[in-house]
């Protein structure tokens, strides 16, 4: 299915999601609208950052007393962000068809951010929707903050690497060489500089958009489990049971082993097994393991979940603090190596014995 832009004779623009242009046209004709111009529309989908901005604006509109549909209509007309404005127009069209907000919003977000659309409680009261939006904003803020911390850690070392590469190029350019050797060396240095610059820009853009979680999922178990328990808590605040929340969790992850662990835990619980035999042992370390054993006696697992989440958060904060120190150190080491090679090439002729 595809998104289509529908232009009316009076200049009004709608967006509709359908199987084909003919189906969209027939839908409008059935409502008595004939003079239309329809073309395929490729929306700029919401990522973590833009989805958080949308949730924040929607939360503010609801907080001012508007109902959900009124808030989306208000944003469609008044939002200064053109992407959010178009998204709201598309959402209004889908809501008028009777489609749930969660389902409609998923079609307008990237695959990585789409699961966060399910955190919104659009079927309850305005207060319920406000609360779920607030929790969703906190979740997205946490993801973006982790990326921002790493971004701040690499900006200065990246600048130092840039300066070091420029020094290397200038040094080689000033050395006396044959014409062919000079052109080859200069071309090689410029190619290295451009490649390094592209890698740096790609890294900065990725971190700025909050995409660090892709590789953090693969590198850090504490990150995966912190994300898992935080999302479990958030999902359960929307009224889901533990099993229902677990069933949704794999959608939030790209790393296959953690998906398998979640599905295994879910089906073990469905089969009626005890908590301790359903969940992997490393999910509940230290005091949370004792609370898990107690939960089997009393049936209340809330304390075990809370203790496990707290323990994994502590471990993750230690790891990200270590990364904030390690990454700049590695970048400065690379920059130092480049500067050192330039200094050696400058002073080597002076050290040669005649």
Task: Write out key terms for the chains shown.
354 residues, mainly alpha, 14 helices, 3-stranded antiparallel sheet, single chain, 3 strands, 3 domains
Written overview of the protein:
There is one protein chain. This protein has 3 domains: 2-40, no CATH class; 48-120, no CATH class; 142-354, no CATH class. The chain has a 3-stranded antiparallel beta sheet with strand order 2-1-3. It has 14 helices and 3 strands. By secondary structure, the protein is mostly helical. The model has no long low-confidence stretch (mean pLDDT 82). Helices cover 70% and strands 5% of the residues. Strand 1 and strand 2 form a beta hairpin. It is flat. The N and C termini lie far apart (78 Å).
Q: Estimate the global geometry from the Cα principal axes.
A: flat
Sketch the major β-sheet.
3 strands, antiparallel
Radius of gyration: 27 Å
Question: Helical percent range?
Answer: over 70%
Question: What's the overall average pLDDT, rounded?
Answer: 82
What is the domain total for the residues?
3
- Give the topology string: H per helix, E per strand: EEHEHHHHHHHHHHHHH
Strand-residue fraction? 5-15%
Give the beta-strand count: 3
Number of helices: 14
Can you list the strand order of the major beta sheet? Answer: 2-1-3
Q: Could you give the distance between the termini?
A: 78 Å
Structural class: mainly alpha
Uncertain runs are none
């Amino acid at each position: 299915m595809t998104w289509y832009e529908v232009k009316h004779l009076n200049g009004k623009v709608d967006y509709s999601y359908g199987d084909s242009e003919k189906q969209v046209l027939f839908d409008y004709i059935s409502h008595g609208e004939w003079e239309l111009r329809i073309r395929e529309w490729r929306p700029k989908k919401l990522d973590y950052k833009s989805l958080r901005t949308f949730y924040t604006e929607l939360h503010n509109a609801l907080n001012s007393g508007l109902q959900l549909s009124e808030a989306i209509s208000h944003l469609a007309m008044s939002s200064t962000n053109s992407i959010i404005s178009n998204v709201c127009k598309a959402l209004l069209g889908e809501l008028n068809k009777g489609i749930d907000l969660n389902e409609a919003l998923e079609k307008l977000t990237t695959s990585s951010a789409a699961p966060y659309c399910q955190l919104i409680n659009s079927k309850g009261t305005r207060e319920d929707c406000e609360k779920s939006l607030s929790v969703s904003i906190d979740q997205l803020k946490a993801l973006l903050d982790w990326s921002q911390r790493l971004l701040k850690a690499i900006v200065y070392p990246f600048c130092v690497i840039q300066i070091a590469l420029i020094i290397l190029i200038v040094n080689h350019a000033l050395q006396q060489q044959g014409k062919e050797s000079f052109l080859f060396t200069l071309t090689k240095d410029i190619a290295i500089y451009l490649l390094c610059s592209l890698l740096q820009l790609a890294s900065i853009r990725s971190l700025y958009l909050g995409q660090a979680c892709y590789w953090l999922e693969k590198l850090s178990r504490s990150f995966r489990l912190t994300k898992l328990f935080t999302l479990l808590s958030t999902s359960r605040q929307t009224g889901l049971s533990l099993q229902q929340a677990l069933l949704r969790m794999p959608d939030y992850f790209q790393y296959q082993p953690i998906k398998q662990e979640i599905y295994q835990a879910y089906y073990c619980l469905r089969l009626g097994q005890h908590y301790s035999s359903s969940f992997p042992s490393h999910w509940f370390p230290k005091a949370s393991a004792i609370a898990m054993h107690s939960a089997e006696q009393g049936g209340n697992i809330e304390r075990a979940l809370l203790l496990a989440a707290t323990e994994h958060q502590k471990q993750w904060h230690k790891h990200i603090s270590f990364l904030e120190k390690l990454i700049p150190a590695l970048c400065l080491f690379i920059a130092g190596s480049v500067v050192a090679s330039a200094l050696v090439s400058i002073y080597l002729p002076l050290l040669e014995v005649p």
